[in-house]
Amino acid sequence: MNFWIIQGLNGLAFGSLLFILASGFSLIFGLMRIVNLSHGAYFMLGAYVGLSAIEAGVNFWIAILIGGGAICILGTVIERFILRRLNGQPLAQVLVTLGIAFIIADTCVWIWTGDPRPVPMPRELTGAFRVSNLAFPIYRLFVIGVAFALAAALWFLLERSRLGAMIRAGVDDLPMARAMGIRTSLLFSAVFCLGSALAGAGGVLAGPILSVYPGLDSDMLPLALVVVILGGVGSLLGAFVGSLIIGFIYSYGQALFPDLAYVILFLPMVLVLTLRPTGLFGRQAI
Amino acid sequence: MVRTRIFLSTTILAACTALTPLQAAESLKVGFMTVRSGALAAGGRQMEEGLKLCMDEHRGVMAGRKIEIITADTAGQPAVTKTKAQELVERDGAQVLIGPLAAFEALAIDDYIRQTKTPVISPSAAAEDLTQRKPNPWFVRAVGTSAQAHHPLGEYAAKDLHYKKIAIIADDFAFGHEIAAGFQRTFEQNGGKVVQKLWSPLNAAEYGTYITQIDPSVDAVFAAFAGGNGIKFLGEYKNYGMQKPVLGAMTTVDEGILKRMGDEAVGVISSGWYSAATDTPANKKFVEAVRKAYSADPGYYTVGAYMACQFLNNALEQVKGDISDKAAFMKALRNVNISQSPYGPVKLDTYGQPILDVAIRKVEKKDGRLQNTVIKTYPAVSQFWTYGPDEFLKSPVYSRDWTPAK
User: Fold this and answer.
1) Interface confidence (ipTM) of the complex
2) Which residues of chain B have pLDDT under 70?
3) CA torsion A144→A148→A149→A153, rounded to 10°?
4) Coil, strand or helix at B166
5) Most buried residue, A131, A219, A227, B377, by most Cβ within 10 Å?
6) Distance (Å, rounded) from C-alpha A207 to C-alpha A216?
7) Which of A128, A210, A250 is opposite residue B240, by nearest beta carbon?
8) Is the dihedral of CA B251, B252, B255, B260 positive or negative?
9) Binary contact (A114, B256; C-beta < 8 A)
10) Which residues have CB under 8 Å from B194's CB, separation 6+?
């Protein structure tokens, strides 16, 4: 019984991390149809920026904002000056984002050296939460809470706010939205900023669990891809459900079938792509 | 890729020409394969630091010959490593190679160095069979094999720490398998029992799922990790409220990453053929120099590259700087005998593998920094431990499934 509870919590915590990572990716793809392969690099760079902020004496919570803010700015600049010029050329956009990912990765080695570094967690969240003979890290419980709050906030933003209405209009029919007077250019920048900021802030938030090291980017990017492919590209609900499913598969799978540890995350993706290519909550391409 | 040529020392040359006038005119080209990009870049950087320190110590001249180091970045990818080795040998005319960093890189150039008969001194790659069942006549190693330092730890855990039951968690690749098997062999031989083996992927995102599987009845956990995984594991181990003592492999708490760890590392007992805290004059001098130049303690990679360079020096002195006879130079390399080094005394066995003092080390906090305090030393440990080459080589190479836990 303990096994199921504790591995369930592990899965929930890992799924929460994945959701924070994948939500921004999904958001950007949903509106702009850009497969942003820099997303993993944004995540890593955000973690590094946050780490430097913390080492400079900044409070952990502010560091999350700094990490998110810095990546928002970077993402917006890249979107404005590079991706926008390649509008309508998905292949070129994919390659550019991949190239940017490499540049960011090597710049990080240059600035922060190759040493793996743990991000210190806030003092009030250290240690384990104990119930009878179960122990679970408080920080992970906190991450689970953040992911659910984020999901609710994003849902509210997309479904209940004016900005969300504009984004949904843009997703459904871009030329028509533009004709209705929606400033899609600004909208694109806003969404790219938000998606990037989620990656950057997520990196800082994940730092105490994953630590920051060269290669974090390429470890995380495939996970984001698996989540959105499973959940359905561009669907927020899909990203949420997909993250949790992958989180549970990861924890139960690795514990029950240790020999499959390397492939276990990718098996569901293969199944879903074969049986339901649009993902669990994806819509047919328009 | 970045390619630099470091010409070390120009002025000393004149002084040395008197010794060996013929060869001094021509510098000896040494190809150095390091890693500057990607996940292994931290180790590569430390290797460069170690090598530079040694070259500076010799002022760029060994046995009267000027040494020209040609550096190549392999990016830690075997395919690139092979190309770089070819470039170094064929285009740049490197006569000796120091490198590469990772075991799979060394395997990638195994055939090539046999073909071209290029002497290679490995500053880091620890794969057992390179100096055991498939020895390469052109290859010597300046560090221990994967299991060399962990045979003693297994015995220590059983005999000195009186542990009876241990769970092993290790990186799921050859280095982790070989360390775990070596540890298990001597631990069980001395009455202990490995009751559980957990293999986590090298790039495991997090260790929560593994930590929560650890059998609560064990006396201790042996954690064998490479790269930065030790940081992640120990941090999470503490946050999961785990209290069983942790034994570590040499690389789990290597000085290269120890500087990034916190109190969670204190008390971890590990073994290694090196500790920056070893209290010998030779090591103190070395550590002092590294701290001064790079404000960090030397670890696995720093000392490995430094010693690879000292091996080169020692062999060159034996052949008086003349490596035109490659076989004679190889013989000299295998004959390396250094009485005082950061490791302690070093000589090589007939397989091209150093026989080294192995230290049992305990992480302690001293003067505000973590260090691996030496608590016991096993002198002159062979890669074959106490089994002897014949008996040792009869059994298959250490692997994931070696004597599985019952």
Assistant:
1) 0.86
2) 1-25, 403-406
3) 150
4) strand
5) A227
6) 10
7) A128
8) positive
9) no
10) B166, B167, B168, B184, B187, B188, B222, B405
**β B346-348/B354-366 pair status:** antiparallel
What is d(CA B195, CA B218) in angstroms, rounded to the nearest whole number?
8
Two tokens, residue A15? 């799924």
Chain A residues within 8 A of B228 when measuring between CB atoms = 115-116, 211, 213
Instruction: State residue B226's pLDDT score.
Output: 87
CA distance B332 to A257: 50
DSSP B172-228: SSHHHHHHHHHHHHHHHHTT-EEEEEEEE-TT-S-SHHHHTTS-TT-SEEEEE--TT
Query: Whole-prediction pTM value?
Result: 0.87
Q: Is B379 helix (H, G, I), strand (E, B) or coil?
A: strand
> Strand, coil or helix: what is B98?
strand
Q: What is the 3-state secondary structure (H, E, C) of chain A?
A: CHHHHHHHHHHHHHHHHHHHHHHHHHHHHHHHCCCCCCHHHHHHHHHHHHHHHHHCCCCHHHHHHHHHHHHHHHHHHHHHHCHHHHCCCHHHHHHHHHHHHHHHHHHHHHHHCCCCECCCCCHHHCCEEEECCEEEEHHHHHHHHHHHHHHHHHHHHHHHCHHHHHHHHHHHCHHHHHHCCCCHHHHHHHHHHHHHHHHHHHHHHHHHHHCECCCHHHHHHHHHHHHHHHHCCCCHHHHHHHHHHHHHHHHHHHHHCHHHCCCCCCHHHHHHHHHCCCCCCCCCCC
Q: Do B239 and A126 touch (CB under 8 A)?
A: yes
The answer to whether residues B13 and B66 touch, using CB atoms and an 8 Å cutoff, is: yes
* B interface with A, Cβ–Cβ below 8 Å: 36-45, 172, 198-201, 203-206, 208-210, 212-213, 227-228, 231-232, 235-236, 239-242, 256-257, 259-262
pLDDT confidence bin for A281, thresholds 50/70/90: confident
Q: Which residues of A touch B40 (CB under 8 A)?
A: 114
Diameter of chain A measured on Cα atoms? 62
pLDDT of residue A56: 95
What's phi and psi for B146, nearest 5 deg?
-55, -45
Interface check for A30 against chain B (CB to CB < 8 A): the answer is: no
Residue B259 to chain A, least CA–CA distance (Å): 9
Beta carbons of B39 and A13 less than 8 Å apart: no
Q: How far apart are CA B220 and CA A92, in angstroms?
A: 53
Six-digit token string for B188: 């069980």
pLDDT confidence of residue B374: 95
Averaged confidence pLDDT in chain A? 90
User: Among candidates B142, B127, B155, B152, which has minimal Cα distance to B343?
Assistant: B142
Domain ranges in chain A?
2-275
CATH of A2-275 among 1.10.287, 1.10.3470, 2.70.98, 3.40.50: 1.10.3470
